[in-house]
Specification:
Blueprint: H1 25-33, E1 37-42, H2 79-91, E2 98-103, H3 113-124, E3 131-136, H4 143-153, E4 157-165, H5 169-174, H6 181-193, E5 197-204, H7 211-222, E6 228-233, E7 236-237, H8 241-247, H9 256-269, E8 275-278, E9 288-290, H10 297-311
Parallel strand pairs: 1-2, 2-3, 3-4, 4-5, 5-6, 6-8
Antiparallel strand pairs: 7-9
Helix pairs in contact: 4-6, 7-9, 9-10
């Protein structure tokens, strides 16, 4: 047991107001802003260097034609129209909530800085906006863009989400990432040098990755100065390279039991102060080939809670620090 991450009581994690044993995004936002805050997914269709030939063609093996923007707005609409339509759905449930515009689909730093500044400013001008979230690839970050994002971070609660997926370059090669762990670190370091919060995406269940490899990904990112982490399940989607392999019987998806155990093992290794924005993902029902158990999202979330309780463990329980307080 690491005393630095000791829960308040036997049944209470230090960053929790309920039964959660990990540092949820909802907990962080409520404590920071004093009320419910939700993200509003947007799609400005900036494209991706892994699709247009700059880095590669065809995109990542797991990525859909919508570039992970299945639940974002319509790119034919301007930012305000998308925001109004998407936020109206959520305001029906949380009428007095605050919002964070979320540039979700594609690589949202893949443009010149003037274009990026205009779209970020348009998002910040929206009603009840208290921050900004920008999803991108680390190889779409250069010094000029990092400085622009650093200036924005001084004005609002900004988080840049970097898709890493795995620290293993052999996996990245198989998935046609056209992107190495060294590329990720270069973009990450530019952002942190400019004071930008970084959220990292990882995926469990990538083909040919063992349980130990998935744990190593968690252990390696635990050493970084991160603001947040998103843990995803690999969704095998129709129309993707992985979808073709699955339909030919060449790959097998994770079971729900294996996924829950892997997430709990990873949470134990991630520092308690890391915000966990999600512990599973959503695949578009119409395009999802496997695993179909992922459609029962509540069952997955409850399974993670139950397993952490069964183990009497929590986020950070296995994090190891050196004498200077750094993760080793």
């Amino acid at each position: 047991m690491n005393p630095r991450n000791k829960p308040v009581s036997a049944d209470r994690f230090e960053f929790s107001d309920d039964n959660k044993r990990y540092h949820t995004y909802n907990y962080y936002l409520r404590h920071r802003f004093g009320k419910k805050v939700f993200k509003v997914p947007l799609n400005v269709d900036l494209g991706c260097p892994n699709r247009d030939g700059t880095k590669g063609v065809g995109g990542c093996a797991f990525c859909s034609a919508k570039k992970s923007g299945e639940f974002a707005g319509d790119p034919k609409d301007d930012i305000k129209t998308q925001f109004d339509e998407m936020s109206a759905i959520m305001r029906a449930k949380w009428p007095d909530a605050l919002c964070i515009p979320y540039f979700q689909a594609g690589s949202n730093t893949y443009a010149d800085t003037d274009t990026l500044k205009q779209m970020y400013e348009a998002a910040l001008a929206l009603d009840n906006c208290v921050g900004l979230s920008v999803a991108t690839r680390a190889d779409c970050i250069d010094r000029e863009k990092a400085e622009l994002l650093g200036d924005m971070a001084k004005r609002t609660y900004l988080t840049v989400e970097l898709g890493l997926q795995s620290v293993h370059d052999e996996t990245a090669l198989r998935m046609n990432r056209c992107h190495t762990y060294a590329d990720f670190l270069a973009g990450y370091e530019l952002l942190r040098q400019n004071g930008v919060n970084v959220c990292v995406h990882i995926i469990n269940g990538l083909p040919y990755e063992s349980h130990e490899m998935m744990l190593e990904t968690a252990e390696r990112i635990a050493e970084l100065d991160l603001h947040a982490v998103k843990i995803h399940l690999l969704h095998i989607l129709r129309g993707t390279k992985l979808g073709e392999l699955y339909e030919r019987g060449e790959i097998t998806p994770m079971t729900q039991e294996d996924y829950i155990n892997t997430v709990c093992d990873q949470l134990e290794r991630l520092p308690a102060h890391f915000i966990i924005e999600r512990v599973t993902g959503d695949g578009a029902r119409a395009d999802l080939l496997a695993p179909l158990w992922s459609l029962r999202k509540r069952s997955v979330l409850n399974g993670i809670d139950k397993e952490l309780k069964r183990r009497n463990t929590w986020q950070g329980a296995r994090t190891i620090y050196d004498k200077e307080g750094k993760v080793k």
